[in-house]
Prior knowledge:
Protein name: Asparaginase
GO molecular function, one term: threonine-type endopeptidase activity
Pfam family, one: Asparaginase_2
Structural class: alpha+beta
Organism: Caenorhabditis brenneri
Active site: 165 (nucleophile)
Order of helices and strands: EHHEEHHEHHEEEEHHHEEEEE
Oligomer: single chain
Amino acid sequence: MSRTRNKSETTELIAVHGGACAKYDASLAEDCRFACGTGSVESALTDLERIEKFNCGFGSHLTIDQEVECEASYMSSRNMSFGAVGAISNVFHPSRVARHIAENPWWKQRRLLHPLILVGRGAEKYAQKNDFPICSPEELISNAAKDSYEKYLHKMLHPYDTHDTVGAVSINTNTMEAESGTSSGGIVLKHSGRLGHSCVYGSGTWSERRQYVEPFEEFSERTISICSTGHGESLVKADFCREIAKRVLDDEEGILYSEIIREFLREKMEPGARFGAIALIADKFKERMSLEFLIFHNCRYLPAAVRGRDNQIRVFESKFDPDSCTDDKFLIESFRM
């Protein structure tokens, strides 16, 4: 695969992460760098879905029945649109299908209820009807996934000591609109039919823009775009991405965003639950804008990359030792963009 991208003049800030990892692998961060150059959340996730090192698309973990069941989600701050697919086994790029569900006007035009999530055969039929590339389930099974299946089946190691859900977030600095998305093969040896946090509204991803009234009839804006990875059931219980976004957007006291997230993690995350996330936050008042990128997790390694306003891509190889004697059993890193 070529690693060359033409530089874009877009105002789109984009960040990509490669999923919570148990082991360090520098190549994962470089793949995130490559995906950041694609220009959109959808195209970034599509890139990662082609690379078997990542737990999404081709390379997804196998279920206990040695099958592939992918899931993906997409959200936009425009009209708070959301779409997700789960337990889908015959589509090369489930992230593209999720975005299509979120933005397809078919139901509205017919005065029907617009679904948020399609699963299993229904999701597969939808993908085929809308001309997405279809494959046999076997075409999504990589050699690495087979090896991982055998390893964990025979040794019965902890199922979360592998790669996890990947994600991407973006904010347009002109419109202050945001997009976010995830793609995942789920946990290794998961039960067939299990849906992870990617499919749950508010847990795997969240993008929201809010406007505030200032003195003298002035207005300010704040946008957050966030996506998560890790132990899906715990992320669902915590309403992870939506609750963090709400706390950030509700803040009127100028509290550091890292401290807002720290308080949430202390209050809401179950002991022992593995999690990770990246977030972009933009604040705008008149011509002034501040941009912040945050990466936070309690896994050993979370590879990520960000393309900023200067069109330069920065790679982040965020590492954490779960056995370290810190007050918080997690890491939060914050960077001004």
